Amino acid sequence: MTAIDIGIAEDQRQKIAEGLSRLLADTYTLYLKTHNYHWNVTGPMFNTLHLMFETQYTELSLAVDLIAERIRALGVVAPGSYRQFAALTVIKEDDTVPSAQEMLATLVKDQEAVVRTARSIFPLADEAHDEPTADLLTQRMQVHEKTAWMLRAMLG
């Protein structure tokens, strides 16, 4: 493979990719959790939550590809195994089937955790003048902040 010369030093690309790898792991783990909740939600709000969770996990499934492709564009291998994601993510797996209200509360916290991960990468992207990564981070934060707001609204 030819050398990468996009105006970002190799060490900066590596550090940004490490941050994006954490974001990828958080996003993929949240995707799995949201999909699980979609399958297993019950109660009077079943249809509303079932459809809302489907919308959310569909958006997350598209996001993992964008994040992984940005890592690759920086010249770094993207993590892609459950083991790698488990080591990188701050999102806790849920081995139980919580109530619908607990699902909503958990997803609010998880959406906000992904925002914090994305925000933590900004200084690296800013220092490297890595506008494509900054743009990706901004878009991801907007989605997760809005989703957290909508989930909080469902909690009342």
From TrEMBL:
One of its GO terms (molecular function) is oxidoreductase activity, acting on metal ions. Residues 18-155 form the Ferritin/DPS domain. Keywords: DNA-binding. The keyword DNA-binding applies. Transmembrane segments: none annotated. Belongs to the Dps family. This is Starvation-inducible DNA-binding protein.
